[in-house]
Amino acid sequence: MITEYKVNRKLFDEVMVPCYAPMTMIPDKGKGSRIWDQEGNEYIDFAGGIAVSCLGHCHPVMVKALKEQSKKLWHLSNVMTNAPALRLAKKLTEVSFAERVFFTNSGAEANEAALKLARRWAVDVYGPEKNEIIAFTQGFHGRTFFTVTVGGQEAYSDGFGPKPGNVIHVPYNDLDALATVMSDKTCTIIMEILQSEGGIIPSNPVFLQGARELCNKNNALLIFDEVQTGNGRTGTFYAYEQTGIVPDILSTAKSLGGGFPIGAMLTRGALAAHMKVGTHGSTYGGNPLACAVAEAVVDEVSKPEVLMGVKERENWFREGLETLNVKYNMFSEIRGQGLLIGAVLNDAWKGRARDVVSAAGDEGLLVLVAGIDVVRFTPSLVITREEVEEGLARLDHILAKLVSV
């Protein structure tokens, strides 16, 4: 029998590995874009579990899928397949360029699979010398040792001993720098269409087109990391759809399960053929419970009214943030795409993004940072107008207090 009892933030320090510094409050329940803590205090959620809770908390279609599948099958080894995984894989190929899917539990694992596929393909087709991976400074691709090394932020990768080799970093949006390091030894370029953790930095269309052409010229693969931008976050199911550039491999996770852990690597059939039986695997990847929930999420998010609603909600946020900036003059720029929005702090407020996040939490509003100078907003894709207006009103109160100190 499981004994439930009230816990507090002090217990975190006693029993958890100190990789995080969570808020003092302990969330207890959520509905839509609202969360309540153990004391009954209400919070407006503009963070969405870091771009995960795409349908908000406890959305009916997710709850229904979870309940129904929980009465059937929870887990199977990959000695067998299962119906939810096959249905979900089929739907992901229908909403993308891809022909094949490999399921994982997270974005890091999806990127790990993508990078392993790129190297395996290069070895099979061109030989072991073609193994260089090109990535970008301020990029982020996960927390495994391989993906954190590929991600271009040394703060995350230093201090763990020798790093995986043959990984080159160049400045994001710098096509000349990219062209300089590309060679016949390059097996892949991996990039975010919109750098998220690095500061909500959009890609330049000329840069994207140039990266695709350099891959074609040098017989290299192009990997798009859409862990944060995928599943409707930017107003199309995948952000690459708005660019005219098609990748060879795509990674997806975060909002794919709407809060249930799942990720996936998507690619074409000819490339997938290089990952033969035994070359890669995942104990929980393709779990029927996760896939059933993700299938419900994909069905809901891919509805035209949901995707069109993302752009409408983007406008609500942009207009609200611009209005606040007229009052408080804290932001130099509001940037991003869809409901992946960054408010960039101006010179007078540089380095104080965490101060804003902390103050917001104290006033019942959940927001994020993207580096030390950007306040990030990644709410539910179906957040209501009322929730947006109430959250922005709380932000108004928060900024007023900060500027008065």
Give the arrangement of secondary structure elements:
Blueprint: H1 9-15, E1 27-31, E2 34-37, E3 42-45, H2 48-51, H3 60-70, H4 83-94, E4 100-104, H5 107-126, E5 132-136, H6 145-150, H7 154-157, E6 167-170, H8 175-181, E7 186-192, E8 194-195, E9 201-202, H9 205-217, E10 221-225, E11 249-252, E12 263-267, H10 269-272, H11 288-301, H12 304-328, E13 331-337, E14 340-345, H13 353-362, E15 365-366, E16 368-369, E17 374-377, H14 385-404
Parallel strand pairs: 3-15, 5-6, 5-7, 7-10, 10-11
Antiparallel strand pairs: 1-2, 2-3, 4-12, 8-9, 11-12, 13-14, 14-17, 16-17
Helix pairs in contact: 3-11, 4-11, 12-14
**Helical run tally:** 14
The helix content, as a percent range, equals 25-40%
Distance between the termini: 51 Å
Mean pLDDT: 96
Could you state the CATH homologous superfamily of the largest domain?
A: Type I PLP-dependent aspartate aminotransferase-like (Major domain)
Number of domains: 2
Contiguous low-pLDDT stretches (5 residues minimum) are none
CATH level-two architecture of the largest domain: 3-Layer(aba) Sandwich
Number of strands: 17
Quick one: CATH class of the largest domain?
Alpha Beta
Structural class: alpha/beta
In spatial order, strands of the major sheet run 4-12-11-10-7-5-6
Assign the CATH topology of the largest domain: Aspartate Aminotransferase, domain 2
Estimate the strand proportion: 15-25%
Main beta sheet: strand number and arrangement?
7 strands, mixed
What is the overall silhouette? Answer: globular
Over all CA atoms, what is the radius of gyration? Answer: 21 Å
GO molecular function: identical protein binding; N2-acetyl-L-ornithine:2-oxoglutarate 5-aminotransferase activity; pyridoxal phosphate binding
InterPro entries: Ac/SucOrn_transaminase_bac, AcOrn/SuccOrn_fam, Aminotrans_3, Aminotrans_3_PPA_site, Class-III_PLP-dep_AT, PyrdxlP-dep_Trfase, PyrdxlP-dep_Trfase_major, PyrdxlP-dep_Trfase_small
Cofactor: pyridoxal 5'-phosphate
Pfam families: Aminotran_3 (PF00202)
